What does this fold into?
Amino acid sequence: MRKALSYLLILTLLFTVSACSSNNSTDSDNTGSSSSVLEFLTYNFNGNKLAIGYKVTEISQNEIITVKAINQNGNVENFKFTAEPIEEKQIAIFDLSNTNGEITFEFSAKSAQDTKNRATLVFNNKRPQLSTDSVTLVMNSLTEGEMARLLVGYFGPSEDKVVQGSYQLNAIERFGIPNYVMADAGAGVRIFPAFTTWYPSALSIASSWDTEVAYMVGEAIGNEAKVMGVDCQLGPGLNLHRSVLAGRNSEYSSEDPFLSGVMTGHYVVGMQSTGTHADLKHYVANNQETNRYNMSANVSERVLRELYIKNFGYAIKIGNPKTIMTSYNKVNGIFTSNFADLIRVLREEFDYDGVITTDWSTNADVIQNILVGNDLTNPGNKDQYNAVEKALKDGTIPKEIALKSVERVLKLIVSSNSMGNYRTDEIDDEKGKEIAYKAAMEGMVLLKNTANTLPFTSGEVALFGVGSYTTIKGLQGAGWINSKENINIDAAFKQEDSGYTLNKTMAEVYKGKDSHWETMPSEPIIPDEKITKSANEADIAIITISRLSMEGTDNKNEKGQFLLADDEVSIIDRVTAAYHSVGKKVIVVINSCYPIETVSWRDKVDAILFAAPGGKMVGAAIRDVIKGKVNPSGKLSATWPVLYEDTSCAETFGDKYNSDYTEGLYVGYRDNVSNNLRYAYEFGYGISYTKFSYSDFKISKNEFTTKDDTITAEVTVTNTGNVAGKEVVQLYVSKPETLADQVARELVGFGKTELLAPGESETIKITITSYELESFIDSRDSWVVSNGSYTLYAAASSFDIKYSAKFTVPNEIVTSTVTTDLTGLNK
Ligand code: BGC
It folds into this structure.
């Protein structure tokens, strides 16, 4: 019996620590209990004796902590002792000769209800097993090789729980550390061969301007990840759309840091509410795909902080993601995961204590990653693993630095789905469909609707454009999900109860043009006679213009990409001529990962709907918006320029080695509103089947005086049209130029109404804080809310201002001073 015990010893230690201070409080008295924290540091077995080194912190002077041990059948063993009220390491020795293998240790407490300091330790084969309370104990027991395994990820043969297409941190069985499984992420759980739901892209979600939609999709993906055995979703992405042509824009939300950060933050909250971890990516300035592994984003410190980092700030504040992924690119000449001060911004300025991981197979140095606090290098290879083990052994990586990362990784694993054994491999398909459909719908943006072309409720529809048959649901790469029963536009219109029939002439022309692969089929040649025939047969034409995008490649200002291809021009010209000549209308659906040129052709067509990659139900959502079953309520999350040359970074974007952000703060609408520039469709634009009026704008005060001050703006929106609809209200601020140049206005808040019936009103209230008002003043290394006069604008888009009101900051407010230097000049 004793022999067996020494090989398989399972000890459960339940510590309830609370202060027994000198006053005479009883066990049931919960008031005044201290918040002493017990930490287990070391352990040692000697025969049947177990010595546990521990530390009690935050203990007050006259507290006495007593410990008793109870074995599993309830017998109290004679392990009673008194711990000294000191914060240094203490040793408790337990003689286990009389136990039957399982034992519970209890720290007696002033308050039995005080669960704050309850601790559990399980020993198996004489090793502490990983649990919330044993992190320090376990990390102090690891060999250098085991530590290296936790700091260098792995992409290898699937073990039982690891699904194809996922990555993992290998299990360390002797300490009960399970595999930690990570999977992509752009728009669902990207694993093979299992099927999961393909949800709308970040671009589609952001176009809804509805934080509940972001939460809902994050939560749905989190639930699917959990049952598929995935601990961490490698997303959401939130880099800004610096250029309209950036390859991954549809995986990211917006050109604006506030919209992008807030929407992404809520997505993270939804995802993590399920227990699945989120990985916010890619920190930072990952704004182009050209030479993505090596290029440097050269950007001034102020612009970097106010635009490209600020959205991470919002998402971290709102969502506290369990992990953050650094980017492939360099910033000001230094790889982001190697850039100590960039990492310090997260750790010190955002108080971020989660795990920071690299992007996959980064070119950055693995040792430097760990030295600067980029905890995990993913997926890692053997050479990197060996290098880290060696550096740990020879001290190149000091143990205390490595332990900080190991501790963060262990805490991550301890809070993962894997610890709870949630895998069932069963996603709720029906629920997935419902959420994917609802979310896709909310992200539809109506750009044009002449003479109430839409809604078009029933009749025969002729579908043009391969995108009508292979509708874009996500982008190639991390955004491509292995999903079944995906609904293309034609399938949605073909559905029996849809109220539509499909024009057979066009269906025949496009036969075989449906594809589920990550490429678009070619456009067929359509003879004029067929177009004329369809115009006589069908009631309306829908032309889908689609643009796929892909990780690793930027798009170009060329025909077939930003510009229409010749065959697309020809289809628009010939179809509009044929249909208009018989009094029928033409709708264009832009189903695209990025904005395209529209001004040269938009006057020819009757209605234009922008449908960003919208997941598996995108076709049904497009159909139902066209039908009027749902009134579109999305608005653009990025500016659509007239020409590519009109964008402020046109000359520097896409440089192979150095992308110089010479446009400074003038990105997207910030440039348009400041310099009164032309645009095709402005940031925040989107129309509806109804109309809204704005009234009763007011702000809560006229002075903003302290860092913790807030100011609330409110405006009433009334549906003045004939059908129910939702409106997105935007709040912009213009700041005084007391200390620095400012753009003319920037987004600081937004709100979406409920579905308002005709005649119904809703008051939207938006509160802003100093975080929205501060500017980074380089010369003072400080974030400052400048003194001076500010204007708040209630608007329907970045150019459609409804009301304004002024307030003053009488004295400047320094919100924080930084010690980090992001110029890259002081490596
Ligand atoms: C992408 C990441 C992705 C990772 C894992 C990288 O190439 O940049 O966004 O999560 O691969 O697939």
